Amino acid sequence: MTQKDSLSDALHERLDKLGEQLERVWDEAEQAYLELAEQQQARREEFRAMALEYQRGWQELSEKAIRSFERTGRRGSAAPQQKEP
After folding, report:
1. DSSP characters for 56-74?
2. What is the CA radius of gyration of the chain?
3. CA-to-CA distance for 75 and 20, rounded, in angstroms?
4. What's the rounded Cα separation, in Å, for the pair 78 and 84?
5. 0.70 exceeded by the pTM?
6. What would the pLDDT profile of 70-79 be if each residue is shown by its tens digit?
7. Distance between CA atoms of 26 and 18, rounded to whole angstroms?
């Protein structure tokens, strides 16, 4: 084996190792990306649930206010009238 052949073999070996490392790093990056995407999806779902709960709370509060206003309005119109002397 000539020096050129041994250098070529060493270079190919090194390239193979670098290729394997690159593949591992790529797989790790892909896994990290997928985990991050799952976390973001969970946060979006949690935010939607909180927003719906907030919306329901405001809806209930609004309905209570309307009912209270209607009761107060009826009482005001049904109040006894003063008789004229």
Report:
1. HHHHHHHHHHHHHHHHHHH
2. 37
3. 82
4. 18
5. no
6. 998 866 555 5
7. 12
